[in-house]
């Protein structure tokens, strides 16, 4: 099977590289920095929003690893930043395996260089829009055993697809391939009618031509009917999966930029 190789055009911003630029990384180009500037113009705390996304990833991966998941399929992984999936998972279970998937060729080249000495982690170039390209990729099949529970992750990605594209169908196809005992971790921009949420959408459309907010009930639909680990779908600073009684700040006490990114973790019984 020929490996999927997307067009490589540094004159156009990509999700992974704009995200990298927002976080102050160095793996980006002028067009990506312009995209990051658009985000910062509309939402000056865009970096904190990006950090919320990473914290959602860390919390979700830690929960799954502590509950027996030892293989993770991370879709739209982006460029290495903060603490990544393999670092969180392998800190809890050194035997955990991770397969990163992204459609940006720079992610592939940087990821392979950084992961050269980690035999339990691999990275492939494929696209969520084509679930079969992921499921049938030989490198995915090499590390992920679809007969055993999987931690399927779509973190910081869903907002970049419009509902008219039916992205839930792509996630559904991946989830169908995962056996009982698997989890689905997702984060997304939420729309509860606040101005900073519309601002992040405006920023995304200006920077990348995508980046929509969704009503929480619409985000829930993309969990394909799976029951969610308590406390369900929640703002990331209030989201601690498996700890529904934990004391957390009231939603109205959060800074507005903390009321943009929501996280949830579904369980496939």
From TrEMBL:
Highest taxon above the source species: Bacteria
Keyword Transferase: yes
Pfam families reported for this sequence: Methyltransf_19
UniProt keyword terms in alphabetical order: Methyltransferase, Transferase
One GO MF term attached to the UniProt entry: methyltransferase activity
GO biological process, one term: methylation
Presence of keyword Methyltransferase: yes
Protein name in the entry: SAM-dependent methyltransferase
Organism: Glycomyces niveus
């Amino acid at each position: 099977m020929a490996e999927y190789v997307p067009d490589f055009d540094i004159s156009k911003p990509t999700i992974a590289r704009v995200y990298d630029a927002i976080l102050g990384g160095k793996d980006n180009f002028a067009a990506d920095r312009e995209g990051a500037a658009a985000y910062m113009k509309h939402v000056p705390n865009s970096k904190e929003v990006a950090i919320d996304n990473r914290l959602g990833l860390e919390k979700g991966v830690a929960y799954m690893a502590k509950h027996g998941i030892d293989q993770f399929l991370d879709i739209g992984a982006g460029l290495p930043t903060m603490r990544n999936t393999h670092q969180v998972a392998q800190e809890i279970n050194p035997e955990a395996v991770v397969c990163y998937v992204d459609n940006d060729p720079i992610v592939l080249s940087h990821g392979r260089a950084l992961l050269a000495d980690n035999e339990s982690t691999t990275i492939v170039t494929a696209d969520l829009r084509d679930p079969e390209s992921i499921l049938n990729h030989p490198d995915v099949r090499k590390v992920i055993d679809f007969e055993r529970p999987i931690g399927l992750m779509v973190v910081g990605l869903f907002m970049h697809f419009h509902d008219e594209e039916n992205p839930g169908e792509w996630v559904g196809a991946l989830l169908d391939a995962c056996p009982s005992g698997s989890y689905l971790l997702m984060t997304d921009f939420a729309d509860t009618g606040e101005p900073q949420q519309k601002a992040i959408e405006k920023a995304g459309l200006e920077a990348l031509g995508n980046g929509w907010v969704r009503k929480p009930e619409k985000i829930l639909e993309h969990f394909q009917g799976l029951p969610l680990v308590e406390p369900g779908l929640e703002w990331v600073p209030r989201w601690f999966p498996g700890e529904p009684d934990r004391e957390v700040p009231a939603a109205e006490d959060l800074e507005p930029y903390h009321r943009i990114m929501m996280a949830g973790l579904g369980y496939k019984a």
